[in-house]
């Protein structure tokens, strides 16, 4: 069955509406290869939410990632204002349904595409929220592993004062079983830390590398390791092959550039931690 057929089935399957009978089901606001996201409104409170409807038989090998995402978001999403809240998770024979905050502002990625570059004050506001959320999940033994603008959502369009980290599908828990180290290569090449590419074991420092890439991207309008192919991007990451072009960074503070450098350190043991990042002069309030 094709993904388009799967999506069509999501539109009409009665079991989905049976689960959501307490909500007015609105428009489709997003689609993925195995999911549809709709706006829904609680009939009693009139509060708006988003519901992600995921078809199980389209997941195939990705089923474990959805189950892991539900477990992690159930544990941490209500504990920090900059993590997308999972209010309820439903499961039927055919579907998972995840009821979350409604991000009416869309993805940070869309804002990057529209604006190109952000001024330093706005970047500081955005990154401080992300680092605060990352510090919280790290404190709870979780590593996100796929931080990028596509996984950062805005509550309202062009309002950068309330952001949510979303998509914990590649996140994992550091526990006794993992011995505090993960080995699966995952993430998006341009944002992936060198130790993840090398598959020699990685942990929470990979998220700070991604934070450094995002900071650079917001300032410059392009990513530090942006190349023509993913393979070339990964090669650039492994060599720390990036610069601060003077025409882009001439009016950017030394504190901002130092923050980026502190995140983009090859050795994860020497990389800045999330807690220390919050105290960095660039982010310090």
TrEMBL record:
GO cellular component: cytoplasm; nucleus
Keyword vocabulary terms for this entry: ATP-binding, Kinase, Nucleotide-binding, Serine/threonine-protein kinase, Transferase
GO biological process: cellular response to oxidative stress; signal transduction
The Protein kinase domain, residue ranges: 23-283
UniProt keyword annotation of ATP-binding present: yes
Pfam families registered for this protein in UniProt: Pkinase
Keyword Chloroplast assigned: no
An example Gene Ontology molecular-function term: ATP binding
Highest taxon, organism lineage: Eukaryota
Residues that bind ATP: 56
Family stated for the protein in its record: Belongs to the protein kinase superfamily.
Full protein name: CAMK/CAMK1 protein kinase
Organism the protein comes from: Schizosaccharomyces japonicus (strain yFS275 / FY16936)
């Amino acid at each position: 069955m094709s993904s388009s057929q799967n999506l069509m089935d999501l539109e009409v399957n009665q079991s989905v509406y049976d689960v959501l009978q307490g909500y007015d089901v609105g428009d489709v606001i997003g689609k993925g290869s195995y999911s549809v996201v709709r706006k829904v409104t609680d009939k009693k409170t009139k509060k708006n939410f988003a519901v992600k409807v995921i078809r199980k038989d389209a997941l195939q090998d990705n089923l474990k990632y959805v189950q892991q995402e539900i477990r992690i978001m159930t544990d941490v999403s209500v504990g920090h204002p900059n993590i997308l809240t999972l209010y309820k998770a439903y499961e039927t024979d055919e579907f998972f349904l995840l009821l979350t905050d409604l991000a009416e502002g869309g993805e940070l990625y869309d804002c990057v595409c529209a604006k190109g570059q952000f001024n330093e004050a706005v970047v500081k506001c955005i990154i401080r929220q992300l680092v605060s959320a990352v510090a919280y999940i790290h404190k709870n033994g979780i590593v996100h592993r796929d931080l990028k603008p596509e996984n950062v959502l805005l509550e309202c369009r062009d309002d950068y004062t309330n952001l949510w980290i979303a998509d914990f599908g590649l996140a994992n828990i550091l526990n006794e079983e993992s011995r505090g180290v993960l080995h699966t290569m995952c993430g998006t090449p341009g944002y992936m830390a060198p130790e993840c590419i090398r598959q020699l074991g990685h942990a929470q420092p990979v998220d700070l590398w991604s934070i450094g890439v995002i900071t650079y991207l917001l300032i410059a309008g392009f990513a530090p390791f942006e190349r023509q192919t993913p393979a070339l991007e990964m090669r650039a990451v492994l060599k720390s092959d990036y610069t601060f072009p003077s025409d882009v960074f001439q009016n950017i503070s030394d504190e901002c550039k130092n923050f980026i450098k502190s995140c983009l350190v090859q050795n994860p043991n020497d990389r800045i931690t999330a807690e220390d990042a919050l105290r960095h002069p660039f982010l310090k309030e």
